[in-house]
Amino acid sequence: MARGYGKSQSASIEAHARSAERRGRCLRPDDPAEAALLRQRVRGGTFVSPRRGLFARTRYWESLTPADRVLHVMRSVSDSTGSWGFRQAPAAIAHGLEVPLLDADVLNVRTSRTRPSGTGGVLVRQDPSHPLEFVMANEARVTTIARTLLDCLSELDFPRALSVADSYLRSRQVQLDDLRSELLALHVRGRGEREALDRALGVAKWANPLSENGGESYARATMLSLGFAAPQLQATFPDPLRPGHVFRVDFCWAAADGGLILGELDGLEKYYEPEMTGGRPVAEVMSRERIRESKLSLLGAKVVRFTFSDVLHTEGFRTLLNCAGVPRR
């Protein structure tokens, strides 16, 4: 019988895994024998390995959000590194910023040995010729918030970059000028970094703290990329049937005919997550949404609803907004 199937070994691995989970980390094997046992578990499906040398129980891993998975990997790596630190999207997550649509490369933790910035990787080593300051955030070693903003806003695609910028303004409760000042205070070197700063400032000019989440930011950036006018965010309107009450909508435009076009980004969490439903049954929540939309229609506004999946299918999203009469810029 293989060594890994003994009860004592199984109990030891489970205890080790639970200890790592309590600390918000992946399991790092103590020795080659434990590593071999864990690889057996990965092949059997009871464990996953998000990065070489790191493991987690499958059921536990699947219960984590994408951001929490990234943080687990980052903390585990940071525990064992000295001159290495994270940059770009993972650093933004550690600083508490939103980065929608995390790709596999973030979890696989690409490394760069020579470049503190650019597209060489998200795990980089301090290089005396390119000073790079690291700080501890969320128990992970990452670039400073200013450097993280520069890297994200200059390197990520526009929808994700704008999500980072919006969440910085929202979470820090600061204004657009504060974001610009944070970027301009960086000491950039060489033509490449100056160009990166210009790109970051170009994204920053569209940032808005009224965007409530990364999904709304991503949708707005897609609208802008498709040539549509920037919408008013979180506009409020009076409830025609309940004096003194108001509705708030995600996006609002003034139509060419003088009317209003209201955009609403729908997410499944609105119907299923307890903190969003207030504990009410799904049917009741959906009924309330239909009543709310009918009241908005009473105001003479055109309402267009879409999901995040609609936003990702850009040509279909373009057609939807065109049909709704959303103005172009």
UniProtKB/TrEMBL annotation:
It comes from the Bacteria. This is DUF559 domain-containing protein. Residues 15-28 have a biased composition (Basic and acidic residues). It comes from Olsenella absiana. Residues 1-28 are annotated as: Disordered.
